[in-house]
Design goal:
The chain is of the alpha+beta class. It has two helices and six strands; from the N terminus they run αβββββαβ.
Length: 178
């Protein structure tokens, strides 16, 4: 009984679609800010923008098993490519230690997804991850290019938002980006 259960469990694991996920940091830029308060105290902040690419890939379905009544290989590849620019803000003390100000963290993102063909007449099956790999790699490269391209534009637009947020702090009289 135990051997049969283990055999069934191992077979089920072998048929399960392997999922693959990764995150890649494409670029990072920082910009110092200074906030001066009404009492004359000045604080230094470091604003960091990171361009990230998250990729998820999986395969559904399974191979044909004619002797078990399954005559069609219905494997199909699915993927999602998500590019994002993440803003984080840190207070820098005089010792150089950084303390994150989590209320100013923002994620600007865009995503795309793709999948292999549902059914191809040639071969009488769907498009598995091996068959669709060229389109998958192309989508990942397009995601890298688009996310890197969005970084500078996002920073240019976001500097004003950060400055306005800091100006709204109690007693802040001057905010400057260096």
């Amino acid at each position: 009984m135990v051997k049969r259960f283990l055999g069934i469990s191992v077979a089920a694991l072998m048929l399960a679609a392997p999922a693959w996920a990764s995150q890649e940091e494409l670029a990072k830029e920082t910009k110092p800010f200074q906030v001066t308060y009404g009492n004359g105290v000045t604080e230094r902040y470091i604003v960091e923008w990171r361009a990230l690419l998250d990729v998820d890939k999986s395969e559904s379905g399974g191979p044909a098993v004619p002797f078990k009544g399954k005559f069609v290989d219905d494997r199909q590849c699915h993927w999602t490519v998500r590019g994002s620019v993440v803003r984080r803000v840190f207070l820098a003390n005089q010792a150089g230690e950084l303390f994150e100000k989590k209320d100013l963290a923002v994620v600007y993102d865009s995503s795309s997804s793709g999948e292999g063909a549902h059914f191809k007449l040639i071969g009488l099956r769907g498009e598995n991850c091996n068959d669709a790999n060229a389109r998958f790699e192309s989508d990942v490269n397009n995601g890298r290019i688009a996310t890197r391209g969005n970084l500078s534009q996002t920073i240019n637009q976001d500097v004003a938002r950060v400055r306005e947020a800091m100006k709204s702090w109690p007693s802040a009289v001057k905010v400057s980006a260096q």
